[in-house]
Amino acid sequence: MSENRSGTPISRRELLSRIGQSAGAAMLYQSMSALGFAAESTYAGPINLSGAPRGASVLVLGAGMAGLVAAYELRRAGYKVTVLEYNQRAGGRSWTLRGGDEYTELGGYRQRCEFDQGHYFNPGPWRIPYHHRAMLDYAKRFNVPLESFTQVNYNAYVHSRNAFGGKPQRFRQMHADFHGHVAELLGKAVNRGQLDAEVNAEDREKLLEALRTFGFLDKEYRYRKSEFAGEGRGYDRDPGGGLDSRPVNSEPLPLGDLVQSRVWQAFRPSYVYDLQPSLFQPVGGMDRIAMAIYRDVAPLVQFGAKVVRIGQDERGVEVAYVDARRGGPPRTNRADWCVCTIPLSILSQIELTVSEPMAAAIQAVPYETSIKIGLQFKRRFWEEDERIYGGISYTDLPIGMIGYPMSGQNAPGKGVLLGAYAWGTNSYELTALEPEQRVRAAVEFGARIHPQYPAEFENGISVAWHRVPFVNGCFARWSDNAREKHYEDLCQIDGRIVLAGEHASRLRAWQEGAVLSALDAIGRLHQRAIAMRAEQV
Amino acid sequence: MYTTSRRGRAWHALLARRGIRVLLTVLALAPLCGRAEDLPQFSNPGTLADRGHFVQRDGAALYRAICQGCHMPDARGARGAGMYPALAANPKLASAAYPALTVLQGRRGMPAFAENLSDEQVAEVVNYVRSHFDNRFTDSVTPDDVARLRASSAAASR
């Protein structure tokens, strides 16, 4: 409750409603954030740009999420919009590979996706957190059905080469045991009075009670093999029905092994804000949202256009591009304004007329390495044999993780796994292999977690992001230094050009960042276009 | 343009012809440490927080594990919407400090490798590139040189 000047309490709702009436939606939104509502996203609902100057034109470079949203909203506002896209498809990194798709990476290595119909693999983004409200809103506005994306599966594995004899352990057991042991240690410290300076007598009892519940501890605050501990970690044999139905309790893993193996690192994705449930995926593949927006703006989009020069003067922008496949002499396209969503890894190589600070910002950001490998198997053995329905197993093998399909669960027939999603050193190493070798490595390493791999494997396809011809990397790897020094320069409107994309956001690598950046860019561009036209009149 | 390796194609063809039995045999023949005959050595995994250290020691192995991902196995670079420069027959490599600094601190879209490679590894891979792929520079860079470059670039790190 807040209080007004007369001392009468007013509710937050009432306060917000007053602010909303007097100051409009943007102020309402800021106030909501300050009061603890709506802190999860800066998306403030559908953008409403009205009153585009008559005849004003915008050239949008790139038809990924940022470019598509910019094109769609600017055209709705009345601008004459043209989109140039390097690929022969829309979506950019919001991309899904399905059976029959062909993909040629840099260096000319060609792959054909051999998945059966209905199966797919998202080489780029694959999940949408519940607080990515712009992405969810565009999915809703374009009638793209979503389904649940399972981030945490307690029955999936955590695997370390150097722990537990290299045998994968269930996330459930690792998680329960780690928390059980930590609760026991803390309980000991409290009971020995070692935390009396920090915990007063009143809180002490409550804390001990919490530790018992949280860690499945016995009456002596010990974490031991017991039916109670089984409520967390499960049993060697589950409780059943009828005569011989008693559960067989299971033995916790020792704390030393859990700590030494660093398997606790795998818990982190289960509780970081970005990955907390609920998460979603579009039914049928991540590209469904981009494709739905694309259908609306398709007549505006020219594919196969490789931008080679972006120039501007006081009257407008001029962009030169060549045929991406055949080359030849450049053609030019003029417009009043330009929204450029080309990734910085590419844009830094294009001749560009912008101010010195923006040029420096464009040059300042390296692009991250990452690789994903999709594998098709004859049967869904992870479900049939191991009861793993969706979610992710983590490993310190070079494949990084195994992601289980979130759809088609418990159905007979084939399945496609995310057989690798690697970062850092292993991503560079896998990228440097030929595509067949990558798939082979994924099968070989994955077999140490699922021995069924060799017998059930059918085919696979890999996307190593540094080899992807339209982006030369996965996403902008902003350092804190570079962000401090260059980010604001990157996001300015420079004459008649504004940049957008995940690289112009603080939600790195997320589609939400691309969309929010596009909405922010076109909002500011629209204001400037109106102001400039007013000056001219 | 590259085509996939003969070995890779053969593996695929074998799989297609004789199915899984062949794969099982290949796996059974692979050493227990998990490296099949032509799969290279892998480093400990990196993460976004800790990017890990490469285990390869000599210049050729480092080139094959890292550089060729972008600059390609023959060091001729690649071209798409943008490009990766050729390292082959590249006069910009005349001063060893240039490639050494580039490896340490990155350049434009290229990430820095200072955290992932020791001074010895940087010297190895730079010397390898400068003496292969139609580059015939006879001088070489030492780990001490790299250490000095690392110290001077640390202040200006991105």
Question: How would you describe this structure to a colleague?
Answer:
The complex is a heterodimer of chains A (537) and B (158). With 537 residues, chain A is α/β, with parallel strands linked by helices. Chain A folds into 4 domains: 33 residues, no CATH class; 155 residues, FAD/NAD(P)-binding domain, CATH 3.50.50.60; 167 residues, Polyamine Oxidase, Chain A, domain 2, CATH 3.90.660.10; 91 residues, de novo design (two linked rop proteins) (Up-down Bundle), CATH 1.20.1440. In chain A, 34% of the residues lie in helices and 20% in strands. Chain A is built from 16 helices and 25 strands. In chain A, strands 14-4-3-18-25 form a 5-stranded parallel sheet, covered by helices on one side. In chain A, a hairpin with a 2-residue loop joins β15 and β16. The N terminus of chain A is likely disordered. Chain B contains 6 helices and 2 strands. The interface between A and B is large, with 66 and 56 residues.
Strand portion of chain A: 15-25%
Q: Which range does the strand content of chain B fall in?
A: under 5%
Please estimate the helix content of chain B. Answer: 40-55%
The poorly predicted ranges of chain A are: 1-10, 15-39
CATH superfamily of the largest domain in chain B: Cytochrome c-like domain
Count of helical regions of chain A = 16
The level-1 CATH class of the largest domain in chain B: Mainly Alpha
Oligomer: heterodimer
Structural class of chain A: alpha/beta
What's the mean pLDDT score of chain A?
A: 92
Quick overview of this protein structure:
Chain A has 537 residues and is α/β, with parallel strands linked by helices.
